[in-house]
Please model this.
Amino acid sequence: MLPLLVGIPVFLYPLVHNPDDPAPVPVFLGLVLIMLGLVLGGSWLTMRAALLLARVAPGAPSLLAARRLADNPRAAFRAVSGLVLAVFVGTLIAGVPRPTSPRRAPTGSRSSISMTP
Model:
């Protein structure tokens, strides 16, 4: 859990204090720490979520599912850990801004390179 707790502020600090141009090294380090924390603490988080669900479960099927998750959280997290990491990496890739490249001006103009979008 420690990498997760350390990674969140390391990731958010450059984004909050300089949102226009955040430093890439702390952001990447924070993401790696968050991912490591999710992998290492995922079964514990699954158990805590299952116990919370068991307290507020509205019916018998939800209560049985929560108790089953709390009984063996490592196996439950193992089943979904690949999906959790795939969604995390996909979100990371979707959030990375695309580099802009200069576009060529139409033929017949003065400049061969135009910086307009």
Summary: Residues 2-93 form one domain. The radius of gyration is 22 Å. Residues 37 and 108 are 57 Å apart (CA to CA).
